[in-house]
Amino acid sequence: MVNVKVEFLGGLDVIFEKQRTYKLNVPSKDDSEVTVGSLIDYIVENMIKNPRDKDVFIENDTIRPGILTLINDTDWELEGEKDYVLEDGDILSFTSTLHGG
């Protein structure tokens, strides 16, 4: 299990009961390391209440284009994306850059 802080910004909080920040205890599967991919699965399975909202956050089994994803203030693409192994105290931010008009 790993303890992380997760932030949903840029309007994403709307699909997470209008709460922007969560402190999560993410369990490991089969005693393996907890990755960002595991965290994303956990978020989709446990935190998005309305099934239609999953498409706002996920597309093709990854974070939807237009959502800036940071791991400890660093673009997740530089950290290995879904393969990054989470550590206690990591902060993950998901910020929508898409705004309705």
Summarize the structure.
The chain is an alpha+beta fold. It has one domain (2-96): Ubiquitin-like (UB roll). The protein has three helices and seven strands; from the N terminus they run E-E-H-H-E-E-E-E-H-E.
Question: How would you characterize this protein structure?
Answer:
This is Ubiquitin-related modifier 1. Keywords: Cytoplasm, Isopeptide bond, tRNA processing, Ubl conjugation pathway. Belongs to the URM1 family. It comes from Lachancea nothofagi CBS 11611. The modification 1-thioglycine is found at residue 101. The protein is of the alpha+beta class and 101 residues long. It has a single domain (2-96), classed as Ubiquitin-like (UB roll). Helices cover 19% and strands 31% of the residues. It has three helices and seven strands. The strands form two sheets. A five-stranded mixed β-sheet has the order 2-1-7-5-6. A two-stranded antiparallel ribbon has the order 3-4. A hairpin with a 2-residue loop joins strand 5 and strand 6. The longest helix has 11 residues, at 36-46. It is globular and about 35 Å long. The mean pLDDT is 93.
**CATH H level: which superfamily?**
Beta-grasp domain
Q: What is the CATH level 1 assignment?
A: Alpha Beta
Tell me, what's the shape? globular
Q: What is the fold named in CATH at topology level?
A: Ubiquitin-like (UB roll)
Structural class: alpha+beta
Query: Which parts are unreliable, with pLDDT below 50 for 5 consecutive residues or more?
Result: none
Give me the strand/helix succession.
EEHHEEEEHE
Mean pLDDT equals 93
Return Rg in Å. 13 Å
Percentage of helical residues?
10-25%
Q: Order of strands across the biggest sheet?
A: 2-1-7-5-6
Distance between the termini: 41 Å
Q: Tally the helices: what do you get?
A: 3
The second-level CATH architecture is Roll
Sketch the major β-sheet. 5 strands, mixed
